[in-house]
Amino acid sequence: MGRSIGIQNESSLHRTLKYQYAEPGGETEVSVGNFVADAVTASGEYIEVQIGSFAPLVKKVKEFVSHGKVRIIHPVIVSKRIEVYDKGDKFLYRRKSPAEGSIWDIFHALASAPELPLIKGVMIEVAMVETTEKRFKDGKGSWRRKGISIHDKELAAWHDRYLFKSKADFLCFIPFKKGEEFTVSSLAEKMSVKTLKAGTALYVLTRMKLVKRIGKKGRAWVYTR
């Protein structure tokens, strides 16, 4: 029963990515111990598509990796078009969301499970995509959306893909040499990202033991590789 409920609740974006990464000859919705993998490729690689936080993946990934390599697919939405319909499914209007995702959003997903990239046999692939989000003006959504509810997310276009095969691959986010000191602010400035994203990245990279805190400079923590 849990398996069918999971399929019913998945978005079109999740479903499309699942079949895309299953590749020819692969299978989808494969039982593995007490869990169900989104897909298993013909070569035996386990595929798990995760749109949100990685926290729910920890136990199942540890189960999958005992059987073979695991690839976690995390879509980051770089551009989103919103289409709004009334309760009778009649199209009302369309607009472009001002929100734009970036590769740095991977750390938001990893913040609740920074140990995942440390597990041998686990790879993380970030898929940069455009989506169309279908919403209904039905009074069931949150107050922030004025009662408009989100019905589905669909893949509209592909952009880049970034594959992190090991924790060392995440050092590309740290443009400083070994022994060089830096702060959240200096990282944000160097990489042209918001301070919040740089801070989340350093939290995860510290937990992964790729960087470490060595003290404070005023109120700011100082880091080094």
Describe this structure in words.
This protein has 225 residues and is an alpha+beta fold. The chain folds into 2 domains: 164 residues, no CATH class; 54 residues, 2-Layer Sandwich (Guanylate Kinase phosphate binding domain), CATH 3.30.63.20. Strands 1, 2, 3, 4, 5, 6 and 7 form a 7-stranded mixed sheet that branches. Strands 8-9 form a two-stranded antiparallel ribbon. Strand 3, helix 3 and strand 4 form a beta-alpha-beta unit. The longest helix has 13 residues. It starts with a helix and ends with a strand.
Secondary structure blueprint with pairings:
Layout: H1 2-9, H2 12-22, E1 27-32, E2 35-40, E3 46-49, H3 58-64, E4 70-86, E5 91-96, H4 106-110, E6 122-137, E7 148-164, H5 184-191, H6 195-207, E8 212-217, E9 220-224
Structural descriptors:
alpha+beta; Guanylate Kinase phosphate binding domain; 2 domains; 7-stranded mixed sheet; two-stranded antiparallel sheet; 6 helices
Q: List the domain count as a whole number.
A: 2
Q: From the helix content, strand content and strand pairing, which structural class follows?
A: alpha+beta
Task: Give me the number of helical elements.
Answer: 6
**Alpha-carbon distance between the termini?**
47 Å
Q: Enumerate the spans where pLDDT stays under 50 for 5 or more consecutive residues.
A: 1-5
Number of strands: 9
Query: What's the gyration radius in Å?
Result: 20 Å
Q: Main sheet?
A: 7 strands, mixed
What spatial form do the alpha-carbon principal axes imply? Answer: globular
Q: What is the string of helix and strand elements?
A: HHEEEHEEHEEHHEE
**Helix content range:** 10-25%
Query: What average pLDDT do the residues reach?
Result: 93
Q: What is the beta-strand fraction?
A: 35-45%
